[in-house]
Each structure stands twice: as structure tokens, then as C-alpha cells.
Please model this.
Amino acid sequence: MSLNPAQREAVAYCDGPLLVLAGAGSGKTRVITEKIAHLLRSGHRPEGVAAITFTNKAAKEMRERVGKLISREAAETLPVSTFHALGLRILQQEANHVGLRRGFSILDAEDAFALVKDLAPAGLKPDALDLLRGLIGKAKDNGLDPDEALAAARSPRELQAAELYAAYTRRLRNFNALDFDDLIFLPERLFASNDEVRTRWQQKLSYLLVDEYQDTNRAQYRLLKHLVGERGRFTAVGDDDQSIYAWRGANPENLNELARDYPQLKLVKLEQNYRCSGRILRAANAVIANNAHLFEKKLWSAHGEGESLRILQCKDETHEAERIAAEIAHLQQTRKTPWSDFAILYRGNFQSRAFEQALRLLRVPYHVSGGTAFFDRAEVRDLLAYLRVLVNPDDDSAFLRIVQTPKRDIGTGTLEKLAQLAGSRGLSLARAAESMEIHKQLAARPAAALANFAEQVKRWRISATSLDAAALCEKLIQESGYAQHLEATVKDPAARARRHANLQELIDFLKANGKGRDALGDLAAQLALLGNLDRDDNGNAVRLSTLHASKGLEFRHVWLVGLEDGTLPHEGAINEGRLDEERRLFYVAITRAKDTLTLSHAAHKQRYGELLAQKPSRFLDELPAADVVREGDDPERDQAEKRARGSAHLARLAELFAGG
DNA sequence: ACGATTTTCAGCATC
DNA sequence: TGAAAATCGT
Model:
């Protein structure tokens, strides 16, 4: 299939900054991949054409699709990565410019939270700590270092956060570590202050493509600006109507900013939708027309009208789930449709429960999107912490994690003394544990335990130079006693098997990806950025997903469930008057459907322990009435109504004949 | 240092 | 309501 004129223009235009407004289902990934191929044909070196996405999954998909257009080796060398992975790459090459040493660690969200907790006044509740952590992140998003944040603080809260930010940063530097936000913030600061480095990277990356541009935050935007320089050789692809992540820092205003910062910006709109039926698309357009728009855009579809949308009115969530599960089972049976053509989408994760139950009862295979990411699982993080300590002896965060996992007779008392010594000598915990001094301060048994552990770490560190990452991991699991630790502490055999399997999966991953080129140190940092290893796409199953996680996916048959006021739109959003983003969420969900779309709501719901009456979502009223049929909570009554309508029609005809 | 009990809380979740 | 965290008690 060839490109349509707008797509072709978006692919061919390379002379200056370009913003592609890509409506839902308008073939934007295709445009990006074709454009990469086009850039390579017109002389760009593959290693200079960077494509930036927000998730690993998107990056992987992009690389695969480009691989089908161009040679395999060129696809391999293309820098297709997330913003954070690009930031990491920059920092690994420029570590000396930002006060880091090679082998630095990346603290994950949990580590960072623990650090904040450690530094903040004792007794603060998690949400207060979270707020402070959030303010530190916000300062970085605004491009402020601790001093600047202190100067900019407007309230006692912000002052407290700024002081914490300073201590937090000092601690990270001591650990030779950084957090996720630093992966954007530090390269940005570096480029802002160092012309030589900035120019070098501008030359290194000759063209930039950014996907899901509406999801960028301010720091990412500034980093982008530094990378493309004044030449503005970039293509940003986005859709303001699909901006659903403002709550976690995305700034859709960046779309406007782009036009302001680059007056020569060219705008291309992709308005032909290749996904949805005419009725579904009309419904989506009608809904989103209720929002204010930065750019006017009218999606159209060459597909036929398709079937009417249905609204199911149910008694409660059990009824809703059972009914939909039965519909899916029935459709699959009669039309021989693969299970993976069906999706059930909902606002909140908790809503999946009723549906899982109902589907299980009917033996319908299903897959729930999301859940705990692979690298958030305790055993994977433990093993990663072992690697971190080997690579970075200053990583106290990782040291604290492994020193007591498994238990090895080193208690909190011993660790306190160790921390004290480390603090007074300016040493990291791992280094202090190797010192002679600490052993003099301890009783015989803990001293022996600590010496033993320090000795073992030293041996592993030597092994690390000769073994590849996978072999090293296997060695660590055995020699650290971690394998036995799982046997002893995890009682449930199924859970134990799962944990062993997770470790094996990590090893397999390292076998496949850890060969050669990257030093173990670089690899350890890269692992921290990996989300779910993609074993989730286990083939043929009904998809259960939140609306957020469904972005970018498409299904022939979609059920959009729990459409009640308070759920979608969410209650908090109603109270704060933030209906726009909720509506976009609804819009994104509608446009996942190719052939049929069914919307359901329940009259009563079990919420906070009691049965509460529910109002249908106000968004349902925004659907074009002519494209919607309603089905009540009683299919028989619906049949009766249909018959009644039929006979009324007959009666009218009879009247006509009688009168004529 | 752990397991049992009480209390709290209830939205999405990337890297 | 029910899960997860906080707290208590040994």
C-alpha cells in the first residue's frame, strides 16, 4: 500500500523542523519508519538518525518495522530508543563532564523513594514523602539545580523540598549514582553549559524523530532543542487529542512552544484514519469536538459505516462482566474470531477483577496488560543490586539491599556501625566493609560475617572481569546463597517456581543481549531502564487493559466498560474541573476499535464497601444518537421492545391502507 | 525479627 | 469491600 499525500509530504520534508499532527489510526508509525528509510536513502548515516519514543515497547516495535524496510545491519545501528536511554547513552560517554565515574548506577523509583525517606525528617507519611520527591522531580523538570531551586522556592513546602533536593543530590553523587529524572536533566544541563559537547552531539545526531510528542515534558523538550540546534532537523509526531499523561508531567503545551521556538516550523496533518469504521470514527469526532483545540483536525475514514455502537445498561458489575464475557465467548464461537481480536477496556485497574472472574468461568483465555513490571520484581531487583555493587563499589543503595538478602548474620547494629565509620571517613559502605578498622569495632561474630561478605564481593568482582553477564549472574545466584534463600523463604511452591523462572528469564535475557560490546557496568545501568520483558504478548487471548495502557493498540471488537460518572470521568477530575483530559481518554478508547464498539455501564456498583447507585457517564450523551443503540439490562425485554416496535410499524401500515 | 492484628485508603503508571 | 501498610506483641 502506498502513502497518502499527507503521509508522503511528512516523509519527504527534511529541510527544517516539522510537526506531524497524526490523528488516531492515521498511520504515524508507518510515516516514521518510512521517513527513516527515506533519510538513509538521502545520505544520512544510520547511527545519526535517532528515533525517540517513550516506552521500550514502542522502541522495539519501531526498530522491527524499520528492519523490514532497510538492511538489518543499518537497523541495528539506528539509535532507536526512549528519551531516557538516549540520556543514559549521553551520560555514559560524557560521565566525566557531569561529575560521574564510569560504572555509575541508576536508582529505580523505589531506591529513590527510600533515599528521600532516609534524608527527610523522620515520621513523614508516604504521601508526604511522595510529594517531596515529586517536588524534586519538578525542579529537575524546570531545569533547576539545588541552589536555583532554593532561590526559586516560594513556599515553606518548596523550601523544604529544595533543601532536601540538595542533600539528595549530594548523596547520589557520593553513591556515584543518579535517578531517572537525571537521565534527562543532566544531559540537558551539560548541553546548556558546554558548547563543545553540545556541538559534538549535534553533529553525531544528524536527524531526530520524536514519537508521541504530546507526551514530552519540559526537560525533554529542552534536551531536544539542544540536540537539534538551530537547524531544527527534526520531525515531531503527536496528537494533542491523545494527550492523556498530563498528570505525570507531560506538557502538551510543548506543541505550541514548538511553533513559537521554530517560526519556520512546517505543519502536516494526517487526517485519514485507516482503523475505525465510519460510525466509530464519527462518534470519536463528536466526542472530541467538545474539547478546545490547539489545531483543528478532522479525521475521516474510507471504510464503510459499519455497525452501530451499542450501549449496554447493566444491573451491577457482576452482571456487566458476565454479560460481556458471554458475548465474547459467543462471538468467538460463532464467527471463529481469534480471541486476540477482543478487548475489554476500563478506567481503573481494580475494574479488571469482575471481568477476570467471568472470563475464567467461561474458560476464555485473557491477558491483563500491565501489572508489576519485570524489573520491579523483588528477585530481579535483588540480582541487579548484586551487579550494581560489583560494578559500582560506591552504590550504598544496592549494598544495603544485598547485604541482608539473604541473611548472613549481619544485623542492623552492625550496619549502623558500618555506616558511622563510612560517614566519618568519606567511604562507601562496601569500601568501609573491606577496611580493617571496622572489624576492630565489632564483636567477633559480626566481624567475621562482614569480613566474609566483603571477601566474597571481592572475589566476585574479579570474576566479573572474565565472565560474561549471564554467567556471572548464575554464579551470583548460587554463591550468594540466593537460590537457597528462595527455597527457604518462599513457602508456596508455585510462587517459588515463578521467582526462579524470573531469575532464569533475566539470565536468558543477558545471554541474548549481553554479548560483547557493552561493558558490564554499562549493561547494569541499561538494565535499570528496561520495563517488561515482552513475554506478555502470549498470543491468542482477550485483552484486558486500562484505557491508558491501550493507547497505540487496536482491536476489531472493543468493550468499553464501567462508563459511569465518577469512574469515567473520574470523580477527582469532575471535582477539579479537569474534564478535558478525561474526554481525551474516552476518545483514545473509542478509537481503539476497528469494527464494533460496545459501551457499558451499571446502575449499581460495589464501592468502598457499599452498594451505590451509579449515573451513566455524561460522555455517553456526547455520542451521536443516530449511531447508537441501547440495550437494557434484560435481553428478553429488548426482544419484546423490538417486536413491539415491529408491530407498531405494522399497525401504522394497516392504518395507512385502511385510510387509503 | 517476625507474624498477627489493626488501620487506612481507594486513578492512570512511563523510564 | 478488600488489599496493603502500619503497628503491636512476643
User: Anything to note?
Assistant: The longest helix of chain A spans residues 635-659. Residues 126, 606-610 of chain A lie near DNA strand C (CB under 10 Å from a C1'). Confidence is low (pLDDT under 50) at residues 655-660 of chain A. The CA atoms of residues 11 and 450 of chain A lie 61 Å apart.
